[in-house]
Amino acid sequence: MAEDLPGVLILDIGGTHGVLEDLAVLLKKHFHLITMKEFLENKKEMSKKIQSVFVFEGRPTIDQELLESLPNLKVIANSGVGVDHLDLKMISNFGVKVTNTPQAVADPTADMAMALMLASARRLVEGNVLHFPGS
Fold this sequence. Notes:
- This protein is of the alpha/beta class.
- It is built from 7 helices and 5 strands.
């Protein structure tokens, strides 16, 4: 069944820089996940299957060599807000589209900003050190 699904290149599943395992489970419902290791071990066969690259935390790196090796690539899906780490002009020269998730972290970012402002205004960190030395 996975062979019938569109192939998506990812760096890895789990580990330090791989796609989170829970996210991989969700992705597997709609895509055939191909790790960078699998791709590099069998580049000739895998390159034809990959239609998308899922960039998670800036990985895998998208460069000209990778784009040239993926003849059926249609889209690069970036899991973050910004796309500064991607050379959009180079990617578009290959006829590949780029997506991102601009609102994905808007609420958590606002929550963190409010928490930091309140902690600063109430001097919570300093108070914690004064009342609980060594913590």
